[in-house]
Amino acid sequence: MTTSIRNTIKLYDQFGHSEASPLAVASSKPEHFIVCQSHVPERTMEWLKIGNSVAKTIDKLCDKGNQVDSIYATERDSMLRTWLLNNANTPLDGDMVRNHFWTGNCQDLRDLAEHILAAISDDRRATGTHFATLPVTRVSWPSMDHTSSLIGDPRMQPLNEVVLVDGWVMRPAAQTFEESGLQHTPRDVSSSTVSESRYYLDKSKETLDTKTLFQMHKSKHFVETRLKNLDKDNLKELNIVKNPKETAGKPLLWDAQWIDQQNHRRTYYSSDSQGPINFDYMPRQQLEEKEATSKAAEGLYPNAVRIHL
What is the tally of helices (H) and strands (E) in the chain? Predict the structure, then answer.
């Protein structure tokens, strides 16, 4: 199967990655996490399934420019590609897919999620699907230097009816805002401005090498300097984020496995007609690869900590 956005979403839609999946799956969270139950409206359950597929699709197809595990796995290429994406002289409109980057930090992957969700809405309207239009908003937490996409609007809806979609964390899973552990953190919410046609879903993964991207987009001088000076041998000298206020001009590296890791939960969602479903599950092989990478990255970065977003 071609690794297009649409086909990858279909894969996650089909198998769901809950315990009932016909695939060999495992929970991405430790057994000691507290098991919780959450009953949601039918529309929210539909949004959870869509958000789960979108977040896991982004995780499968994209690298994370400032995540320790991704930097290690790509031998620092994800960081360089993200610097190029965000500092190119050629206008890119934040679209790393059309421009062959397939990597980014939280704001870049948030924008990608909004493009995908807008395209899904367009697709659903064309087929007359119930609850066709997805009301997409964006949320940011200034105190944490993080941002993400939402289906629903926490300014007008109960938090247990708003779905958080975040493909930037290393082990993403959809959840309601109420269960995210971030519901009490000061936040800014705005409506998405992305309007995308359905063909965006059929974009297949095509990545150009870093040198070619640099030549295409003629990035700013300081990025060129970093490209020359940064290599695999000095990765261990890069800064691990413990407190964003302490980083002043240094590379910001994160070690965030789950968006809700602070509240130590494994939430099972149900509606009047469905559930309980836990969205933390992923293919066992994929999980084992992530755990091996994380363990190896910890060896390279002995001072890394599990960031509580």
Answer: 8, 11
- Name the β-bridge partners of 163: 151, 176
pTM of the model: 0.87
Structural contact between residues 117 and 149, judged by C-beta atoms closer than 8 angstroms: yes
For 193, the enclosing helix (H) or strand (E) is none
Distance in angstroms (rounded) separating the CA atoms of residues 267 and 175: 8
Q: Which residues share a beta bridge with 139?
A: 148, 189
Question: First CA to last CA across the chain, in angstroms?
Answer: 35
Q: Which of 8, 16, 13, 10 is nearest to 277 (CA)?
A: 16
Distance CA 221, CA 225 (A): 6
Which are the contacts of 6, defined by CB distance < 8 A and separation ≥ 6? Answer: 201, 202
Q: How far apart are CA 118 and CA 195, in angstroms?
A: 6
Centroid of chain to Cα 243: 21
Nearest to 176 by CA among 270, 48, 36, 263: 48
Q: Domain limits of the chain?
A: 5-300
Model pLDDT for residues 192-246, shown as the tens digit of each residue:
888 766 777 887 877 777 777 777 766 555 455 555 554 444 444 454 444 444 4
Note the pLDDT tens digit of each residue in 160-178: 999 999 999 999 999 999 9
β-bridge partners, 26: 282
The residues with which 138 forms a beta bridge, in sequence order, are 149, 190
pLDDT of 95 reads: 66
The amino acid at residue 93 is: D
Low-confidence ranges of the chain (pLDDT < 50): 1, 222, 230-237, 239-251, 305-309
